[in-house]
Amino acid sequence: MSEAAGPRLAAVLRGDDERVTPLELFFDLVFVLAITQCTALMAHEHSWEGIAKGMLVLGVLWWAWVGYAWLTSVVDPEEGIVRLVVFAATAALLVAALCVPTAFDDSAGIFAGAYAIVRFAQIWLFILASRDDPGLRHSVLGLAISTAIGCGLIAAAAFADGTLQGVLWGLALLLDMGGPLFIDTEGWRLVPHHFAERHGLIVLIALGESVVAIGAGAERGVDGGVVGAAVVGMVVAAALWWLYFDVVALVAARRLVNAEPGSERNAVARDSFSYLHLPMVAGIVLIALGVKKTLAHTGHELTTVAASALLGGAAIYLLAHVAFRWRNVHRFSSQRLIAAAACGALLPLAVAVPALAAMGMLAAVLAVLVFYEHVRFAELRTRLRAQLH
């Protein structure tokens, strides 16, 4: 490993180290709180507007997390000044997470300031790391422009309200996430196994939020309905885990490793991981909202908003997998598309039956999909897992 700065302002490059460090996991634990807060925001407002707000906040926080996934695939987060700056960014992320429930109201200004600290700490560390790498420096400067635009729009949104505030948030997310499509990607650096594992862990963390939702929804006490909903909720969470980690994550990691270093590998990382993992995480968060509402009223019908979150979140998760597979291996997953369509088709029924039955229908769709793929692709699955391991 080499140092990219002087002894006092040093950013030690990661090199070929593929491990996810404890400090990265510590940062991710704070992101767990941010995800939980997004669910709390949507659950509290329980409206389409609340869903939109929750998804906007999740999107901008996701893009902040993505920035650190790229950063720590370039520099060692536990060496030099990087450790201190990452701790500072973690504290700022914690403040931003605490502000999420009122990010569009009383805490808008504090959220904007904390979010800007998180984002520009990442840019500053990238600048330190790129002192001896002109290609990386060129890419970082392009990223700094889109970051400044995004943070500026969120700051401006703190002084607005209503529709204008929502539009400013949407523009911030669109322009910030769109930046990498227009800047030169040749200069980015990453360690493929580390990068893929980091995104797999964040999916696991998001799945943990669906488990947390079971506990949050059962605040009124434990009875037969709650026990049944908890079991069905775990079936849903286990199926979501299976659909990602059984083979898909391994194939995606291999695709990233085999991609030509430079523009090709960076484009695969950007599209498959930075972009397409967002709808996966968003889908899980929406499912968690539906699970929370189900546990709170197992014997009553779900509202249209809650049922749409439960089934629509699953459809979004599955459609993201369809796009993920196509981007990585250019193969179309018709069975996951059919399962996503089935989730949408069940929505009218889901608002007419008890909440526990609605969640049971989702569990059945996912369980059938897992069983079908396990049987239909058994030989291919065994061969792939043997090769990939």
Fold-level CATH name of the largest domain = I/LWEQ domain
Largest sheet: none
Which secondary-structure class do the elements indicate?
Answer: mainly alpha
Number of strands: 0
Summarize the helix and strand pattern as letters: HHHHHHHHHHHHHHHH
By DSSP (H or I, 4+ residues per run), the number of helices equals 16
Distance between the termini: 27 Å
**How many domains?**
2
Q: What is the radius of gyration?
A: 21 Å
CATH class of the largest domain: Mainly Alpha
Shape: globular
Mean pLDDT rating: 88
Low-confidence stretches: 1-8
Please identify, by name, the CATH architecture of the largest domain. Answer: Up-down Bundle
Q: Helical proportion?
A: over 70%
Residues in β-strands, percent = under 5%
